[in-house]
Give the backbone structure.
Amino acid sequence: MQTIIYTNSVSEAIRSLVSEMNPASVHIITDTNVERDVLPRLGLDYKIIAFPPGDEHKNIITLSSIWASLIEQGATRKSLVINIGGGVVTDMGGFAASAFKRGIRFINVPTTLLSAVDAAVGGKTGINFEGFKNEIGAFAPADAVVISTALFSTLPSEELLSGYAEMLKHGLLSSAEDYAALLSFDILNADLDRLLPLLEKSVKVKERIVGEDPHEHGIRRALNLGHTAGHAFESLSIIKGNPIPHGHAVAFGMLVEMILSHTAEGFPSDELYRYAAYLKSQGYGTPAITCDDYADLIALMRHDKKNDTPDSINFTLLSSPGKVLIDRTAAEAEITAALDIFRDMME
Amino acid sequence: MQTIIYTNSVSEAIRSLVSEMNPASVHIITDTNVERDVLPRLGLDYKIIAFPPGDEHKNIITLSSIWASLIEQGATRKSLVINIGGGVVTDMGGFAASAFKRGIRFINVPTTLLSAVDAAVGGKTGINFEGFKNEIGAFAPADAVVISTALFSTLPSEELLSGYAEMLKHGLLSSAEDYAALLSFDILNADLDRLLPLLEKSVKVKERIVGEDPHEHGIRRALNLGHTAGHAFESLSIIKGNPIPHGHAVAFGMLVEMILSHTAEGFPSDELYRYAAYLKSQGYGTPAITCDDYADLIALMRHDKKNDTPDSINFTLLSSPGKVLIDRTAAEAEITAALDIFRDMME
């Protein structure tokens, strides 16, 4: 299992890990935004490999340049990589480390809430390839992850909202109590000190699920809750030229899938209203869709890589908060009905 | 542990594995020589991805083209790759499969003795990068390996000799009996049916050692026997423009390291003479070195990646056949003396 450290003192935690691991050399992998905005605050004296920010740089060209930099900086099999950044940095830096000399040690230090709760933990690393997301990669858990909400102080509130959607997901997968605690937290005006223990609880839900099924043969698919419909919202928004953040799309996708859960599995209807009210109160907005978009959304859900056959659409459903049902399918008519209810609730 | 099948019926073994694994699709990765010379004999009806032969193509460009072909051929997470070829094919094809969609299943079918006894088994995969051998890769064991000496019938005798050096190494690491059995086999005029059980015994030695230490933190380094001096012979021959095969270099390197073992650890001297006589009787030839080459050879040994610090030269030594001592070092004067004795014995 990975060491995960929850702290308000990031630099100290990193220095102490480095001293414990006693590497031959230390190489920070990051993007140029984090290099400019975050690294000076940390005051770490290690070699730096920085690439331009953005998912469009999460590719084999940037990956090769990271490997070339590691060689140029004299990294050996006993060196250590520290990935400091969002999901692009931890995904690509983790894969770079896992394949360099067939694998050197690495630490993840997520600088966004989304990467703290999602990408930095659990061992999925990779790059995009020929337009396919995370097509090339490895299951390679970081040796340690340092999680601190102190790094989020300069994040725009939109980014906090986006990451919080994944926390809501973990709450729903965990228990009615965990989920209720999240709905009573004000992420729009977040108290970062109070966020840290909530984040710790949330990451532990993911750790537990990943620990039971590291290679996603079964229960790990529970973590796809909200993502079948969510990815469709996200892709459609990109196609329409008005992209919404990943977490917002997942937040909307979870409502669609809760509605499907209500119809198919008796998920309580008052939970639907409570959840929709929370999204509206926190300013998640609403995806601008009409019934003319249904065919496109359903086609996008059908092409999701989580489907084992092209004829079925796979969902993770819930019979209540904490009661998870993986590998469920829904017919087009059910999805259409759920999208109608979704639009009503979010208006 | 990997399934390893020893057989004289390669196609049947492959078809039976495919039927058992029930993949969504099957993709053969190979080089164009094997595609032309071996695949027609096997009569398999699977998709083919072939690249030009040779270590110079074991790079990120070819690797990317393999991934692109897998996508183009519609490979999914439930597809199967079959690597059919020598070490370049199994190393690169194995890494391609291990990183495609974070890992799909693959089978290795070695077509050279060297890859059967060495590269195809044990999970080391990778490509060369910026002039460094196997700089990028993964520890990823094949789901199954199909080993058949029937595939070697068209190999030049030089290739059989080269692979047999690794078998001699496994014999030395295993026991006096296994080693003696190898010295009484005529690899120069090889009876391939008799070679199969010897090969099986040899691969099992490697399996046992790799099973005890898959990530090479300790005893797996025993498999480096002969390789510190051997790589130096190999590199020097390339620098001089007259390259010798890898296995031949290892065969010579083992004699150098047996001489060091004799001096430092009392390895019996009659074993040295017996081994040198075998090499000469089987036509391994001799590396054309003089005492003017010693400084270069020692410098090459010093830069070997098996050294943890640049100041020491790491060897695997033996106190007798089957009695292995890893992580030993030798001083320059001892190496110089061993090279003198080596030249005397091989003349």
Remarks:
- The longest strand of chain A covers residues 132-139.
- The mean pLDDT of chain A is 94.
